[in-house]
Amino acid sequence: MSWGIELWDQYDTIASHTQKGIDFCERFTHFLKDRCAIELKYASELKKLVKNYQPKKKEEEEYQQYSWAVKFWEVLKELHDLAGQHEVIAENTQGQVIKDVQILIGEMKQQRRKDLQDGAKVQDTLKDSLAKLDKSRKNYEKAFKMAEKATDDYRKADADINLSRAEVEKTRNQMMIKNNQCDESKNEYAAQLQQTNQHQRDHYTQQMPAVFQQMQSMEENRINKIKSMVRQVADIERSVIPIINTCIDGMVKASDGISAEEDSKAVIDKFKSGFPIPEDIPFEDLSNASVIDTSNANGTPKNSLDSRKGTVSDKKRNKKDKKGGGGLFGIFSSSKATINKIIGLLGEESKEDFSDLPPNQQRKALNKKIEEFKKEIARETAEREGMLKMKDVYVNNPALGDPNALEKKIEENALKIDSLQAEMRKFQGYLANMDGKPSPAGQRRSSLSDDSISQSSTNMEMSQTSIPGQPQIVPNEPEVYTDEEFEEERAVELRKKEDKKAIDDEDGDHVGEFDHPEGDFDEEGYPVIGTCRALYPYEAGNEGSVAMGEGEEMFVLEQDQGDGWTRVRKHDNSEGFVPTSYIQCHFYDQDEV
Fold it and tell me: Which residue has the higher pLDDT, 457 or 69?
């Protein structure tokens, strides 16, 4: 179907129709923009909703152990992701469809303007031809009338006997002139008519159909583009449906993860005080002025309730009850106060050993603190190992860096590890005292064996490092000696060992050092189990330790027993303990493997 054939006479209608098509494209653009604005606003409102209901830090710490809270937070995350997909719809529509529609509108306006200009030229050509035809026709009519009048005049003159021959001849000549002019006008009119008819045929069969065909192609292209864009909008939305479905599946999964049983257990773990249930309230026999106390035998607090009313003691007791200070209701009020205290302490600063918390809560707090120290020690230890490896690389290849530049950092790291381990041992001591277990430090106080030496406190002048994972537990006061007492006792034990060895030397019970000390004993009675090299200089700060210089080679007599110290013997036959973290050891049993 061609507009040029079927709509040959509807030029103005076609021009109006194509303008309506452009207007529709502009309206479609406005529709897409409004749609994108709605999607963006919806996404913004969803994200705002998620933000408003996101847990604050205090709420997150308080409710993080409950599945209903955690899963609700997961639902919020899924909802946030879902909002992001609506933003994707808006962004893709703006970046792809709306841009294409605007380009299409510009192209259509330009093409329609050109087609209308071409159509106007063709129509102007036809109008000019028709105007010429009309003009030639009018000239022909005028000449024909004048020729008829001249012929009439000649006939009348020829019939009039009163006119002379010359006058008649003049009238005849005038007739001939007018007839010739009429013939010329007739010929011009015929030629112009033929030319105008040809222009008209070309106008309606070739020129205007070509213009109509261009406008028809433009309109069909617009329709196809609109069709493609409508589908593109649908495809954009379809592309995010799998992700939206994934978000919805995540919400369903979160709902399945909510467990009433687990949350009930979490409430017990969080708020269980560990206190025993109050026993029966004893009966007060006021007549005998004696109290039958059945609770004291089990060591529970006294809580009495007088059965008599109207007595002086009863009135006093009633006053106490009104103040909340005694009676049966006082028990429950104290229990409530305990719970409130537990809840309040979760957000307030408590004592260092958490002794102001109920037993269960204290144990949890101590374990949490110990785990934090372990993680921090592991992190610092990994950092230390990295610096040691870097130092070895610098030593082997000085061009990469100065190994001495790392010395200060390594020493600071060692001090930090010592401090963290001391703090961790302190809290492990609190936990050991709470559980009623014997403190490892207490065992060392009663019996200090020859195979190990206890670690000094962090207040000593020297720096020390313990092996992570083998902490020395320092119990809570008052069950632990102070640092000065503990160091003094250790020095006494060391002197006893030295005296005992001196006696053994006098009795000839020791053997000399062999060339290869593996598996044999040195002159002090300890087997030489390996060698070591000092990584850093160390100054002996207390009795039992020995000084060493950086790079000094020594014999290992006793491995670290978990207290951060290794027993060594120097080449000048002096021996003592040095920090394990300051030396690099090589044991002979490694060669056998």
Answer: 69
Dist. CA 329–CA 136, nearest whole Å:
127
Residue range 333-383, pLDDT digits in tens: 344 444 444 444 444 455 777 777 787 778 888 888 898 889 989 988 988
CA distances from 202 to 127, 133, 198, 199, 483 (A): 13, 16, 6, 5, 119
Alpha carbon distance 290, 286 (integer Å): 7
Tokens of 198: 């040809």
pTM for the model stands at 0.49
CA distance 118 to 125: 11
Q: What's the one-letter identity of residue 203?
A: H
Q: Check residue 356 and report its DSSP letter.
A: T
Distance CA 4, CA 11 (A): 9
In tens, the pLDDT along 194-246 reads 999 998 888 888 888 888 888 889 999 999 999 999 999 999 999 999 999 99
**DSSP secondary structure letter of residue 516:** S
Rounded to whole angstroms, how far apart are CA atoms 557 and 521?
9
- Beta bridge partners, 291, equal 284
Q: How far apart are CA 109 and CA 115, in angstroms?
A: 10
Tokens of 456: 């000094």
CA–CA dist 511, 526 (Å, integer): 10
Residue 121 is encoded by which pair of tokens? 């030229």
Residues 341 and 333: beta-carbon distance below 8 Å: no
Where residue 384 falls among pLDDT bands split at 50, 70, 90?
confident
What residue spans of 324-406 are helical by DSSP H? 327-347, 359-396
Pair 179, 148: CB distance under 8 Å: no
pLDDT mean over 66-91: 92
CA pair distance 54, 63, nearest whole angstrom = 12
In DSSP terms, 248 is beta-bridged to: none
Question: The tokens of 557 are what?
Answer: 């007599």
| Residue linked to tokens 């329609």 | 112
Give the largest CA-CA distance in the chain.
198
Q: Is the peptide bond prior to 301 cis by the omega test (within 30 degrees of 0)?
A: no
